Amino acid sequence: MKPTEALLNEILDEVRPLIGKGKVADYIPALATVPANKLGIAVCYNDGEIIQAGDSEERFSIQSISKVLSLTLAMTLYKPEEIWKRVGKEPSGHAFNSLIQLELENGIPRNPFINAGALIVSDLLHSRLSAPQYRMLELVRDLSGDQHIVYDKVVATSEMQHSDRNASIAYLMRSFGNFENEVMPVLTNYFSYCALKMSCVDLARTFSYLANKGQPLGAKEPIISQTQSKQMNALLATCGLYDGAGEFAYRVGMPGKSGVGGGIIAVVPGEMTIAVWSPELDPSGNSLAGTAALELLADRIGRSIF
Ligand code: DON
């Protein structure tokens, strides 16, 4: 069954009582100022039809959802073995910003969606592109069809001022020889990607290539191949929600990616892309009410990859 706007509104009403039970991210101080009661959802069908409810057009900080875009870009620039010799494809079982495994595993991050892995991907982009920030903005504007998407400089600067942990992760990888560029310029780019400001509608449109074998909405050419799209969805299903990936697979049953801004994208391959936003997070750093909304939607429309 196709979700209607009424169904989406009903789902938002059902999860709204969860607001107050999570915690808005405050380790990036600029994120802590976002009102906790924001709640939005958008579904984009592969034919471009959008169904939406709540604060679905309000832009927020996409944070780690940007890690899917940077990996997509890296996949278009590098041979698979050049990427996967530097970062793994396994769930980490640790927090997204943990350093523990990195020391034990010789500076090779478990997967491209924890911070360490995304910093490797940013390092790869830095090595091959003369203006990676510009290229990323161009990519996201093309994929979403919205030329007005920008980086939130306040959020990027706020994160740069509190970057000790990410800097430590990058320097540790560099000490193992797994970092090609100077750490600070790569961190600056990474924080900008994370500070992209997008709405649920923007996100659902942007990631529809993952529901459509690598083919973006309205584009003539696929951005990545059908095989790469399958690979990305597999990585999202196993690692996209960090140490909450198993719980998310159990409850929602779709490849997904979260961000500490409270956004989550989820993919139903062959059919639709969904984006939700609710700023309060669960202990794994994933949107609490957002996950609940996706769980209800998956159940009501009878969709899952399992
Ligand atoms: O590097 C960080 O910590 C943030 N810019 C992104 C982390 C994040 O979004 C984790 N996701 N739920």
TrEMBL record:
Keywords annotated in UniProt: Acetylation, Hydrolase
Family: Belongs to the glutaminase family.
Gene: glsA
Listed GO biological process terms: glutamate biosynthetic process; L-glutamine catabolic process
Designated name of the protein: Glutaminase
GO terms for MF: glutaminase activity
Transmembrane segments: none
Binding-site positions, substrate: S64, N115, E159, N166, Y190, Y242, V260
Reaction(s) this enzyme catalyzes, per UniProt: L-glutamine + H2O = L-glutamate + NH4(+)
One protein family per Pfam: Glutaminase
EC class name: hydrolase
